[in-house]
């Protein structure tokens, strides 16, 4: 008898915040179909984000999902998906839906016997691994242990492609997150002003986010990118580049955390760029607004207006179902025409080459509004569109998170609910 019970794990006011079993079932079924289409016998899900996406939680283990009709599948006489869990077994069962779980949960076998365990389930081919996201040393151990079943292929692109299209339930989580995010901007407005530090302002925004259930981690796909959930940069700090592949760097508080908010204080008239992320039940939304003590001067206001025009150009292209690369080409061309070729998304040599990034359980999902993404944002896809310009004296730009639905592009985050510029009394 353990000292804890699953009834102890609750959301606000006792709410059940588990992923609905119907969601997990639909995701596992779709992956099984996609694996069969790609002629891959199955996949071993091991990345924490994808364990949550397919299995309902991120306990230490591996979730095996057989391709439809392949060895181990229900169609082939097997048990279907099986989660092998090291710890916590009890939490893994509960997070998957308890007695209603769409997959079997078993203790993790010894790695040396893992291939035999799968073979005993009817598996007759090596499952694909997540070579594109999991550490190489980790996947190498599993590839070696499973070598008697054949050579493991890479399931990364298949998984990423599936996750591009969000369900109604996923969009609902992002809509809820957007309502919290508005209050984060309002918190910045309440505490900010001349003489206030970036860190003090971001702390106020993060307090709102944290109290609403944000887990504290912004999940990134690309190594070694790490991102703070709140990036507030005032004046010249907004012109400082960082390791992060984005328009705005910022000083950060120290070199190990060398992006985002630091100790710079707001000066009268300086542009203050506030870029905030909130995640509700893992699903992120991303938006940017400008703040100023007093008023933005005409030059900064014009730059902001021009970035809003670039944003509208990008949204229009995506709304038509045209390729993301075309949205980049037309948005970039407009920015160059307006005179921002050397300042769009950073300053040389530190310019980023995108105008929007898909977003969901990770901040940097695909597709991207950039060259090479010669396909549209799919219906059900979610995109943070964020044209910005950067100068030595600061940065300015716009950003909202959008979803493409059956009627076209719809803003998830504030859009018109918050002004593009919010002023503090000087």
Using the CA coordinates, give the radius of gyration.
23 Å
Using the 3D structure, state the CATH architecture of the largest domain: Alpha-Beta Complex
Question: What is the assigned CATH homologous superfamily of the largest domain?
Answer: Creatinase/methionine aminopeptidase superfamily
Order of helices and strands: HEHEEHEHHHHHEEEHHEEEEEEEE
**Shape summary:** globular
Short structural description:
The chain is an alpha+beta fold and 426 residues long. Helix content is 31%, strand content 19%.
Features:
single chain, alpha+beta, Creatine Amidinohydrolase, Chain A, domain 1, Creatine Amidinohydrolase, 2 domains, four-stranded mixed beta sheet, 15 strands, 31% helix
Would you give an account of this structure?
- The structure is a single chain.
- The protein has 426 residues and is α+β, with helices and mostly antiparallel strands.
- It folds into 2 domains: 6-163, Creatine Amidinohydrolase, Chain A, domain 1 (3-Layer(aba) Sandwich), CATH 3.40.350; 168-424, Creatinase/methionine aminopeptidase superfamily (Creatine Amidinohydrolase), CATH 3.90.230.10.
- The chain is 31% helix and 19% strand.
- It has 10 helices and 15 strands.
- The strands form 4 sheets. The protein has a 5-stranded antiparallel beta sheet with strand order 9-8-10-13-14. It has a 4-stranded mixed beta sheet with strand order 1-2-3-4. It has a 4-stranded mixed beta sheet with strand order 5-6-7-15.
- α3 links the parallel β3 and β4.
- It is globular.
- The chain starts with 20 loop residues before the first helix and ends with a strand.
- The model has no long low-confidence stretch (mean pLDDT 96).
């Amino acid at each position: 008898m353990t000292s804890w019970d699953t009834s102890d794990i609750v959301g606000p006011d006792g709410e059940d915040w588990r992923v609905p079993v119907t969601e997990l079932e639909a995701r596992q079924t779709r992956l099984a179909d996609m694996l069969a289409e790609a002629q891959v016998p199955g996949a071993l899900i091991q990345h924490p984000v994808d364990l949550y996406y397919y299995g309902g939680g991120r306990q230490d283990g591996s979730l095996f999902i057989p391709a439809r009709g392949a060895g181990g599948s229900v169609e082939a006489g097997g048990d279907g998906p099986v989660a092998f869990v090291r710890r916590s077994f009890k939490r893994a069962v509960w997070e998957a839906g308890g007695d209603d779980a769409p997959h079997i949960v078993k203790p993790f076998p010894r790695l040396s016997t893992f291939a035999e365990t799968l073979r005993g389930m009817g598996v007759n081919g090596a499952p694909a691994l997540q070579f594109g996201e999991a550490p190489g040393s980790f996947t190498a151990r599993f590839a070696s242990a499973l070598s008697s079943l054949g050579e493991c292929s890479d399931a990364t692109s298949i998984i990423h492609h599936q996750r591009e299209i969000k369900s109604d339930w996923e969009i609902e989580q992002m809509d809820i997150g957007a309502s919290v995010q508005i209050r984060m901007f309002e918190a910045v407005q309440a505490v900010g002003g001349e003489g206030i530090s970036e860190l003090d302002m971001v702390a106020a925004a993060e307090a709102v986010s944290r109290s609403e259930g944000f887990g504290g981690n912004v999940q990134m796909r690309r190594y070694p990118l790490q991102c703070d959930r709140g990036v507030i940069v005032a004046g010249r700090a907004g012109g400082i580049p960082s390791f992060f592949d984005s328009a705005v760097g910022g000083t950060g508080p120290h070199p190990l955390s060398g992006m985002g908010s630091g100790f710079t204080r707001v000066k009268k008239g300086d542009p203050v760029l506030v870029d905030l992320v909130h995640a509700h039940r893992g699903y992120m939304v991303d938006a940017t607004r400008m703040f100023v003590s007093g008023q933005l001067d005409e030059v900064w206001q014009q730059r902001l207006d021009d970035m809003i025009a670039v944003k509208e150009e990008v949204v229009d292209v995506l709304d038509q179902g045209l390729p993301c690369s075309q949205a980049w080409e037309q948005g970039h061309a407009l920015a160059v025409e307006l005179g921002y070729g050397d300042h769009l998304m950073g300053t040389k040599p530190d310019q980023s080459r995108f105008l929007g990034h898909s977003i969901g359980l990770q901040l940097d999902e695909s597709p991207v509004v950039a060259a090479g993404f010669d396909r549209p944002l799919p219906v059900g896809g979610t995109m943070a569109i964020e044209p910005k310009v950067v100068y030595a004296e600061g940065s300015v730009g716009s950003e909202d998170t959008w979803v493409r639905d059956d009627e076209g592009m719809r803003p998830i985050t504030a859009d018109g609910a918050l002004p593009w510029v919010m002023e503090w009394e000087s």
